[in-house]
Amino acid sequence: MEQPMLAMKNISKAFNGITVLDSVDFSVRKGEVHALMGGNGAGKSTLMKILTGVYTADQGEILIDGKPVVIKNTDDARKNYISMIFQEFSLIPTLTVAQNIFLTREDKTSFGLLNDKECVAKTRNLLKELEVDIDPNELVGNLGVGYWQMTEIAKALSQETKILVMDEPTASLTKKETEILFSFINQLKAKGYAIIYISHRMDEILEICDRITILRDGKHVATEDCKQIDLDMVIQYIVGSGMDKAFEWVEREYDKTASPVLEVKNLNLGSKVQDVNFNLYPGEIVGIAGLMGSGRTETVSAVFGTGPKDSGDIIVNGQKQNIKNASDAVKAGLALIPEDRRVQGLVLEHSVKDNIMLPILSKMQKGLLIDDKKANKVANDFVKKLNIKTDDIYKMTNLLSGGNQQKIVLAKWLANDPAVLMLDEPTIGVDIGAKTEIVDVIRELADSGKAILVISSELPELLALSDRVLVMHEGRIIKELQRREINTEEELQHAIQGF
Amino acid sequence: MQSKDSNTTVNDTVAVGSHSVKGFKGLDWRDYIVYLAFIGVIIYFSVTLHDQGFVSTDNLLNIIRQTAMISLMGLAMTFVISTGEIDLSVGSIAALSSLTAALTLQAGYGMMGGVAVGLGTGLLVGLVNGLLVTKLAIPSFLVTLGTMGTVAGLAMWITDTAPVPIVDSTFNFVFGSGDIGPVPILLVWTVAATIIAHILLRKTSFGRQTLATGGNESAARFSGVKTQRIKLLVFLGSGFMAGFAGLLYAGRMHAGRFTFGEGDELSVIAAVILGGTSLFGGVGTVIGTVIGSLMIGTINNGLIIMGLDVSQQMIIKGLIIILAVAFGKKAIKR
Prior knowledge:
The complex is a heterodimer of chains A (499) and B (334). Chain A is of the alpha/beta class and 499 residues long. Chain A has helices at residues 44-51, 74-79, 97-101, 116-129, 145-157, 175-190, 202-208, 231-239, 296-304, 326-332, 341-345, 352-357, 372-385, 402-414, 432-447, 459-465, 489-496; strands at residues 6-15, 18-28, 33-37, 59-64, 67-69, 82-85, 163-167, 194-198, 211-216, 219-225, 262-269, 273-280, 285-289, 311-316, 319-321, 334-337, 365-366, 369-370, 420-424, 451-455, 468-473, 476-482.
């Protein structure tokens, strides 16, 4: 057996007496892409933070090329050629690409001043070598998300690196950008880097990774060759038991003769949304598929009044609505769960309860004051109903995991009992366990008679949920498919690409 | 991909103006609003006040003299605001420093003693500000609001509001009153400090890390920037320059006085923001600050020559600042 480039042995870590990692073994070979998977709270990030020196392990050792090393802080990690690409980007939007890449490591002139020309030249070479087309003098803030990612990687590689950790690198990338990233990762692999790839997206992992290690509840569950493993096995390992049917489509029963609850007619917004028409029926789940930039998000925000529209009618339950802002939309019985829940959906510094109460404060009033008993009851009911994992309803939402945050956003809008629920990428950045729960909640809501519109870039999820799929391409709905007519994910993929 | 500009021409000289490093096609006039506004103001007064002597060398040099202290404090404030912080205590520091310097001179410790104590006073307050912001994590707005009051009180208390005359003619010459040939010494100080500050911000690791800290503090920290140290340093710098401004007030007026620098913090912050430095941090321009300061000074000067009274001056000055910032809005957004 070849000696691994990195071996973490018997790593344990506890916070305040609670064990987060329990004697975990993890190793990566040279030229290998190794996936690290597990639900939220499984210990992936803690393990990587120990590797990169953010935390120190209570017990265990780290070996690089067979030699034990001590990593006490991020500087130590750097010295041992370990770099991490963070999920929350570590770039400064107000500096240029070259300035970011060489921040704190700039070349100096003989007078000790910054030699930006040299840094720009080096950056240009680096980017050329990596075959990335970015202007070193462009401000990072002006770059698209995909290029942020590339810049981030270029930054990591500008220092001598052997081990590269990527945390959810494709979370905000389009299909095209993901492809570019993958060919890039393959290049790095060929050059002999050891890459640790953290992701929730199974299809990607099976495509790009050589081996996969799965953690659950702070313990090492399995390390397998990617060629010898399939989706069901991985899900089995992650959830432990009985969730393998999560992403299977269930043909749902609903009244197909009812009159539509939402009608959108001739919706237009420049070239972004062109002549969009669709209906939603009570109890129905409709998916919108399309590439990023195909007009999906613009369409729902125009319907909801949070985005602009040039023309178009929104009709709810046969009544034409004049929706100018979100508050009009809520009154009309619509709800939208936006794409970026952290920015648009939650007040992160507020408690679970306060967040759930926000849209329904007026219903909780008793005279001029908030009826605390009633509010607590409503909040507690939602926590129970949606299985939100929190100590109590007073916990700050930024202390919860992504999946639980998303459930709170759901609760927040359900509290208002909307007739139509629109969800933009409801499971982005959420672990598989929470994902299946969210899928279940959405199905339950539809069963209770609500009309649901889901935007998702994850086709398995879209296929699992939808009764009907609208395919958008360059601002138009180019296809409307009954779920029954779609046999495979590939068929839908083709439709999305505009063929 | 909206991100890629096809024009990759790099215009290095743009660095003077602001954060923008685009080619000529990507040039955004809003980045240069303060320069355009400044030219506009000069032209307007030159035409309307030509006969009252606005364009005379004497008057123009006078504007330089009147704005020197604001400019110098603005230079340091540019760094403070670039990190996303603020320093409200500069005006009070200038007053206290003018007094401590004057008292030291009066006590016979000589010019060097006076200068050292004046600057030391500024550094000390800056250190207190910086430590409170970094060690206790109190927002700088509150910390410096507190020190602004405390230091102003100290300045009144130290001599029981009495001014302290300065008879050291060398001190008075070097710090404010002197002219080298036709050039006021205040202009020399302003130009020298501007060049140093510009190089510091654009060409040194300290400057780059200052901008990085304000651009995204956690990202900067992950990149190895010692953001707390940077913040401490910018507050030290701000205190030092405010102390220096105090020396200049003292030298120019031949006295230390608790009223010097009163309300300067607002003019200084206005100059910095007008110049194009982002109130949210991450974007800073030293040259812009000096132009911003000169513009405020020019407007003041022009309005006085026009014969407007103080109340009218204040109204017009306020409106011009709001207009300029509103037009240059892009610059203060992320």
